[in-house]
Amino acid sequence: MNFNYQLKLSRRRKTVAISVKPQGVVVHAPYGICEKWLKGWLLSKQAWVEQKQQLVTQKLDLMSEQLDSINIYGQPFALNFGATMSFIDHQNTCVHLQSLLTAERTEQIREIHDLLSAELTGYLEGRLPYFESLMGSKYKTLKVRFYKRRWGSLSSKGVLAFNSALACAPKWVIDYVIVHELAHYYVMAHNRAFWDIVRRYYPEFKKAKTYLKEHVKVIQ
């Protein structure tokens, strides 16, 4: 094997698992496992581990890059660090952050997402009444926060949620996500009936879907 790993044994564990983190590779296994079998199993997973290690390295490289701009409604806004207050300056296409340039990346991103949440909430509160009336859909609560794996959702309890990162996308794309989620008021599954509803109220939905797919890394 071309990788080092830390072995963690547990009397409660019944299966073998591998986790690849920036700190290294950790193998979780049941107490008393056959060492010969484990080495053979790890050898069979070598290509997978190496692939995961490359992804972790790429992610670390990306995180080390300096933030200098962010998209707001599809347009680039410069980032100004060390401001007296945090706000989005639409007139001068600039996002002012209280975080210092030398601050932790997680702190900067947290502050950015707070601003994006407030920005998107304002836009949604202005657009939702129109689409709600147009489509006849209903919801009880609006929720905006950052999600890693979804743009929005409508729960069976009427909670309408949106990813704060959508504030980085053009408004016509945000409108598509609004229609998409409100369509779930009638059909929860992504079947033909659902897409017929989306098409009725947003004919160019495929264009918006393609935009989100192609720009997901830029937006998030």
From TrEMBL:
CDD domains: M48_yhfN_like. It comes from the Bacteria. It holds the Pfam family YgjP-like. Residues 14-215 form the YgjP-like metallopeptidase domain. InterPro entries: UTP_pyrophosphatase-like, YgjP-like_metallopeptidase. This is YgjP-like metallopeptidase domain-containing protein.
